[in-house]
Amino acid sequence: MSSCNRVALVTGANKGIGFAITRDLCRKFSGDVVLTARDEARGRTAVQQLQAEGLSPRFHQLDIDDPQSIRALRDFLLKEYGGLDVMVNNAGIGTWPKNNPPGKGDFFKEPQPGRVVNVSSLISLEALRNCSPELQQKFRSETITEEELEGLMKKFVEDTKKGIHEKEGWPNSAYGVSKIGVTVLSRIHARKLNKQRRGDKILLNACCPGWVRTDMAGPKAPKSPEEGAETPVYLALLPPDAEGPHGQFVQDKKVEQW
Ligand code: NAP
Question: What is the position in ligand 1's atom list of the atom closest to the CA of 14?
């Protein structure tokens, strides 16, 4: 039975920045918060940790690269909530955001002012600056399509396999190029929303959490996971009457020039 509760969802939320985002949303979001993790046991342990702090997240399994897992989550959200209000894509690009772009035929509630936050990295901006002028122009284009972006990402993989990626104008960082993908896909999805759902006031942005002490970044990073969660949570909770930011790359709650 679908409830009228609002609902926010975080991917890769069993540890690190995703866990800190979930904790902060549990405190600040007026509605249910769904902690998702690809591994059920790790996810449920994280939920118990938040429950011990007096918070009440729900749990659902989600592997962002597994179509069956994505379908099961969609069914759960539609049945329980009639859709989704806030989506924090913390765990990377996977096939989840690609197969669930906000826009026509999606499962964002209407006419709620939904919020989408794609966790990218400042490294995407550095990697962009290290691309050839031709590639930079493509990645900054206001008309690049999802298919063209996918083609470029595939070309990077192929060029790297052949050992010619630098000659072809790519930077020497697979992580950097993957995060270019996240930021550019966010810009494409925001443009799509402008065309298809302008009246619904959904705001979608990419962001950098900063350099954060997690398993991924190691213990020397200057920010705590809680500090890393600040910008993603700020974007997830933009007030209902906010006009922006939208389609931007945001760091420390400020829009950076892409
Ligand atoms: P982390 O501690 O390594 O956590 C990554 C999370 O993503 C884990 O929960 C992991 O689950 C989950 N995950 C990985 N693959 C997944 C999949 N296919 N489906 C669902 N979940 C999956 O990393 P983090 O530092 O918190 O990073 C979070 C995000 O911030 C990432 O997008 C990262 O690129 C970005 N970021 C981090 C920093 C930094 O300094 N830490 C800086 C810039 C951007 P398992 O536990 O099952 O592996």
Answer: 9
